[in-house]
Amino acid sequence: SQKIEQNSEALNIQEGKTATLTCNYTNYSPAYLQWYRQDPGRGPVFLLLIRENEKEKRKERLKVTFDTTLKQSLFHITASQPADSATYLCARTDSWGKFQFGAGTQVVVTP
Amino acid sequence: EAGVAQSPRYKIIEKRQSVAFWCNPISGHATLYWYQQILGQGPKLLIQFQNNGVVDDSQLPKDRFSAERLKGVDSTLKIQPAKLEDSAVYLCASTPGSRTGEQYFGPGTRLTVT
Fold it and tell me: What is the pLDDT of residues B49-60, one digit of tens each?
């Protein structure tokens, strides 16, 4: 079965630094990888989507990469701020629409 | 544009009781998802609808869970009878068109089974 794995340990980072999160998947490459942010008591909020044939996507201070050789996506938050503290979820989508989330990685940005 | 609506926000029931959750997706969104999120875990897909047809219910415990999406708009998810391990947040999400696009989530229903 397909697996999608994220680092379960919380990432503690100082304000202004770059946070880098990892998402690894097994077996065949998904058509898309998506990244979501989830705050306590709320539903996930979509951040970025990257397609299988794309290497990199950017949105403001966010950057995501997709490496089909390593079967990995990296998610970067540059110039991190305390407001970026949340859990970040990676999700794979297959070409026929099957969706699967990772367990998420908590990011804590301290002033 | 109104977001995905869910109700109730919180529910506490005893084991073996039944419970129902309601979801109203964003207007015009054809695809609707129900997820179960246990504390500390990512959302787990229970069922996916395309309009009023089921696309994927492979992880739905069909002996106790059921879901419907009449008329391709609102949806209800029911648990009968509930078990302690059903305690979780139940999230509803919808997508504008493509089944592979970004999902818009509701606030979720937190269920506690005692």
Answer: 988 899 899 999
